[in-house]
Structures are given as C-alpha cells and as structure tokens.
Amino acid sequence: MLLDNGRQARLQQLPAVERLFNDERVRKAAGTLHPRLIKRIIRDYLHEVRSEIINGRDAQFSFEELELRLLVARKPTLTRAINGLGVVLHTGLGRAPLPKVAQEALIDVSEHFSALEISLLDGRRGSRYQHVEPLLCELTGAEAALVVNNNCAATLLILSTIAKGREVIVSRGQLIEIGGSFRIPDVMLQSGCRMVEVGTTNRTHLRDYENAITSETGALLRVHTSNYRIIGFTKEVPLEELVALGRKYSIPVIDDLGSGALLDLSRYGLPKEPVVSESIAAGADVVCFSGDKLIGAGQAGIIVGKRELISKMKKHPLTRALRCDKLTYAVLERTLELFLDEERVVREHPLFQILLKSPSEMQKQARQLLNAVQKRLAGRARFEIKPTRAEVGGGSLATESLESVAVAVKPVDISVDELARRMRLFRPPVFGRVVQDEYLLDFRTIRADEIAIVAEALIQALA
Ligand SMILES: *Cc1c(COP(=O)(O)O)cnc(C)c1O
User: Fold this and answer.
1) Which UniProt keywords are present, listed alphabetically (predicted)?
2) Which CATH class is domain 82-94+354-462?
3) Residue identifier of the C-alpha nearest atom 1 of ligand 1
4) Largest CB tally within 10 Å, which of 207, 209, 333, 412?
C-alpha cells in the first residue's frame, strides 16, 4: 500500500522495540515482568499504533500508555474485582460469586485426583453426569438431566438432537438476542433445523402454531424473553397450551428458560422469574437454563426433561465437544445441594444475600464508606448517599429493578472518567457507574468485607 508522506513520516518516527526495551522508564514500569513479556507488550502496542496510522487515524505513541500497559500486566489480569455497578449478574464481571461450599469443592478437586467418571458403587467407568443428575431431577421434577458448557450450547445440542433437518416452530416475539451474539435464529441455523416463525412481534396465538404444523415439524420451541418485555397489546401462548398441542401431534416441546430459577423468587418479594419445576410440571419435554444465572454456580448449560430425549442427547457427537470439566461439576454439585434446603440456600448463597439485601443494610454500609473517606478526602471530592436502582442482569428480570443505595462521588480536581479509570486500575479493580458528573458506587453489589478496599481505592485515586 502506498502511503502519503505524512503517514510515512509518522511511521518512521515510531521508536524501535529494542530502544524501548532498554529505556529506563520502561524498565521501571515493567518491574520483574519477564523480558519476553515486556517485548511482547511493546511490540503489540507499537503494532496497534502502526495500524491506526496506516488506517489514517490520529494515533500517537505515548510513553504513559506503554507504562500503564506494563504496570497492568505485572499482575494477573483475572483477579477478584469489586462490583459497584449495581448489576448483580454481570457477564463482564463473571456473573455470581460462588457459595463457600462450592469454593471448598473447587479446591478439593483441583488439588487432588477425583472420581469424575468412575462409579463409586462398582468401580466401573461411569459418567460425569452422575454427580448432578439425581440432584437436578429432584430439584426440577424431571426424569433425566445433562450438563453442557453453557445455555447456548444446551440450545444447540437440543435442537441438533431433536430437530436436525426438520422444522422448528417458534413465535416471532421470542426470536431474542442475548449479549455476545447469541441469537435464536443463528443457533437454530447452526443446529441444522429450519426455523418457522409464527405470529407477529406482539401477538402469537395457538392457532398460529397449529396452522404451521406439517409432517416436517420436529419441535415447538418456546424461548423466555429474558432480557426484554413486549408490553401493551400482547399475547403469548402459555406453555400448557403449547404442550397440549405438541401431544396432539406427537411433537416435542422445548422450553429455553435462560436464567431458570430453582426457587420462586416472588416468595421473597422479588419479581417472578420462571421456575424450572413449573415448566416440567406443565409438561415441557425438554427445558434448558444457565448454571451461572439464578443458580449462581459456574458457567454451565443445564438440560432437564424426558429420559428418552436426554439419552439421545448424551449419545450425540456434539456432547463431547460441549462437555464441562471437573471444576464445573464440583461447583455445580455443591451449589445444587444447597437448593435442597430453601432456607439454607437463601442464608448461605451470596447471590441470594445480594438479591435480598435490605435498604437499611445498604444505607449502613454506604455510611461506613463515607466515614472512612470523608475526612481524608475533604476538598478533593464531594460525597453523597443516594437512593438508586440496581438490576439483576444476566438476562433475568429484564424490566424489574431492585431498590438500592449508592455513594455518589463528585471529584474536584479530576474528571469522573479519570476517577473511574483510577478505580479500575486499583488492585483489586473497582467498578462503578459514571452517571453524568457523578461516580456511583452501588451497595446492592458491594459487599460488607469490601468497604475497606473501596475506601483505600478512593483515597489512592483522589488524595
Ligand atoms: C442467557 C440466555 C441464554 C444464553 O445462556 P448462556 O449460559 O449465557 O450461554 C440463552 N437463552 C436465554 C433465554 C437466555 O436468557
């Protein structure tokens, strides 16, 4: 490619890797980082700047930026983080914190060998599903269960097994996109089935499904519209009616629940989210949901339903490609055990502690943070405790928000964006919401033992 002189000159002015590598400032920022990593970071950064210049953008090499990259790389980047965003199940922040019993199981199976695929009863080769299948059946009322990498994988496996080469009928109002490019039509295409859309965006009737049934129909699919709601003049067909229709024509009904609650949140004053056992009781042949949304275990996709269909899925070649490792099973087994005793799960699972935290508790914790920083940072920032709204996130309870309390920080000498950046670069990183000229730390998701850390981060960022 021919470049104009301006761009040529700017490219030639870029420093050489070796020169930077031997530079005093660079050495200092890199600390004890391995020389190979230092060179890689320098090279990657120069490459980025070079591409920007070639593409005609106004990029420049900056020493500060390189130093920052080296400083950040000195510590592992996947570490604990503090969630001040007020989004409980934030995919970017790894969704839910795990219960203590699950953490212990993680250490136990990672430190030692484990009976992952050996039956303890007869010593023969067993299956990794043995650890969670009885629990899942007990908790949902289903005949059989299977676990794969995530709920997206679950949908793919179900459709490939049941309906490959056949038609699957789904309502237009349920053709959802979840973040990270999960789109129902794309997953259906990948599974090899043919999507037949029925109804309109806001209204789908039972007769729309019935009129679309042909000898080619392989399944009826219902998708929980977990991250949005259609309101106003709407109609969705209840699962019971879809099941009755499926029975009439001997067509299986699949229910993709997304978050899939194992207990009824509305009993605790939270908005209602579909409960897995209710879908099974309504007669759905297969139900799938995430392991790391309202169950609060590690990433997994859980499939429960009729034994005959689940057995077929277990034998499908995709299952091997989508299977989870021992760490996932260990976490899932212990987390599911908690749900056997509803009082216990509500008491011990951090997810439920966060969801059920009272406004007075949040108020108290916000005050503790203020007490820890206000004197030290007098004149540097203004602080205020404010009522706010938090979200469940992870595609759960889309339109419902939770009462919350935030500490709002207005820095005096720096911008809010700069404050947010400094908080992010603190170790552990702290994430807060920037709303206009305020930086909000939401106490729905900041936990009691994190207040001192947040205080220290604020002091370092502002003092
Ligand atoms: C979240 C969600 C998915 C994707 O689940 P992952 O476990 O994140 O892959 C699929 N379907 C619905 C309805 C969801 O809410």
Assistant:
1) Cytoplasm, Protein biosynthesis, Pyridoxal phosphate, Selenium, Transferase
2) alpha beta
3) 258
4) 209
